[in-house]
Structure formats: C-alpha cells, structure tokens
Amino acid sequence: MTMKQISILGCGWLGLPLAKSLLEKGYLVNGSTTSIEKIPILEKIGINPFIVSLSAVEVSDETKISIEDFLENSTILIIDIPPKLRDSSTALGKTFVGKIQNLIPFIEKSSVEKVIFVSSTSVYADDNSTFTEDSKPQPETESGKQLLESENLLQSNKNFQTTIIRFGGLIGEDRHPIKFLAGRTNVENPNAPINLIHQEDCIGIIEIIIEKGLRQVQSDNRDFNDIFNAVAPFHPTRKEYYTQIALELNLPLPEFDESKPSVGKLISSDKIESVLNYKFKNNLQ
C-alpha cells in the first residue's frame, strides 16, 4: 500500500504531537513552522519541515515556493493555526481571514483533496444555550467572527472538501486553565458549564476524520464537507470543576463572584460519538 502524505499547517501545541502520532501510524508528514529554530525539532521527530509564514496581505515569492512545496503530493491538509486576535485588534481588519484567503489558491492548485480546519466553539454565543452542529453560530469575539468566516470560505470552495472541527478549551499535561485561575478572586460565571477537551482526544478525533477522508478518496465519495463540535461529554460548573482540580493539585482555590448571573453555553459533542463512533478517552479528571 502506498504511504499517504499529510500536510500539517502549524506544528504547535496540537500539531506537533499530532504529527508524531501520524508518523507512528505510517503516514508521511509535511509540517510547517514559522520559526527556523524549530526546524531541527521537526526533523528529529521525522517530519519533513517547512517554514511557512502566512500573510494577510501580499504573499512573497519565497513564501509562494514554500507553500507549494509544503502541499506537494499531500492528499490531506490540516490547518491548525491560531487567529491570535483580541477584541482590541479589530482595527487590524480581517487578518486571519486574509491569511486563509491567500492560502486557498495554493490548495486549489495542489494535490490536496481534503482539508481539516481546526476551529473553535467561540463561534457560538455565550447565551446559556446548548449548541449542536445544527445551531446557528453567532460569535461575539473577533477571533470567533474570523474563524467562522474562514470556515465558510473553505467549505464553500468546490476544488476541495473541508471538515470543520470546533474544539472547546484545550487542555493537556502542560496546559490547564487552573494554572491561570488558581488563587484568583472574583472569577466570573461560576455556574456556567465547562467545555474542555484533552489533547489526547483532539488527536484521536482528527485521526478518525483522516481515515474517513482517505477512504472517501479511494471510493470517490464526495461527502467530506462536515462540522463537528469537539468537547468532552463532561460539563460540571466552572466552580465545581476548578475547585476540584485546584484541590487535587494542591493549588490555591479560586474564589468565584456569585453576585451576578452566570453566562456561558453547553456544547454538545453527541455527533462525534454517533457519526464517527468515537469514544472519549479523557474525562478531564
């Protein structure tokens, strides 16, 4: 069987361990970074490394060559680059959307048939609703707005097919909100449900979608345009969860502001379990 090649745009906190897992499963992996210092790290793992720094404005000739080489001979492209936007950055315009707009022509001309776009549950409003993939996104933050516009740009393109994964808050061994919340006072929204997902499950879900995509390439099934919410099916309140985790890690307890009504949302990931038959490995405890 011919080894399949996958390109991962963004070998960061999630992209790098994902690439390592895919290599262990026998895939060839092209990986991008914006840092020349990171090239030896990618090479040591076995990733074919590329420097790719997307611009929201004009794409330089050097970047054009890098993107073309990065995509060459790959069947699937995974886009995992953070918007890096704050609400105060609206004056900068649609910087993230511009990067995706500039990337799309290169995907169109490449061998890529399937795109997996890592998005976020920030495309849904904090209005105390329960959201499924059929719910209407109404993002309130600048990053959420640009992620949603980028989702639409990719899924509306007829030259390739795109699956969107809307991840909740990302946690892992070196990353957890309690490190920021421990010992803080007046923490808002104590009764809002958590919507978190462990790095291990992020990788597991992406790998199942990759397998699905490659089967569809072989069978010429053109039904890859899909959307999945991806959070662990475990939704205690913020106060319950972060108090428990602080106690377990022997950290100072956060103090919550109970004086105002809590605002949040509950994200359903039932579709991942029913359609992809995925069983979550980490319940965040």
Structural description of this entry:
The structure is a single chain. By secondary structure, the protein is an alpha/beta fold. Helix content is 35%, strand content 17%. The protein contains nine helices and eleven strands. Strands 3-2-1-4-5-7-10 form a seven-stranded parallel beta sheet, sandwiched between helices. A two-stranded parallel ribbon has the order 6-11. α4 (95-109) links the parallel β4 and β5 (114-120). The longest helix is centred in the C-terminal third of the chain and has 21 residues, at 199-219. It is globular, with a radius of gyration of 19 Å. Mean pLDDT is 92; it is low at 87-91.
| Shape category | globular
Oligomerization state of this entry? Answer: single chain
The biggest sheet, with number of strands, parallel, antiparallel or mixed sense and barrel status, is:
7 strands, parallel
| Spatial order of strands in the largest sheet | 3-2-1-4-5-7-10
Residue windows where pLDDT falls under 50 for at least 5 positions: 87-91
SSE run: EHEHEHEHEEHEEHEHEHEH
- SS-based structural class? alpha/beta
Helical run tally: 9
User: What is the residue-averaged pLDDT?
Assistant: 92
Gyration radius, in Å: 19 Å
Helical content stands at: 25-40%
How many runs of DSSP E, i.e. beta strands?
A: 11
> Strand portion, in percent?
15-25%
> What distance separates the N and C termini?
40 Å
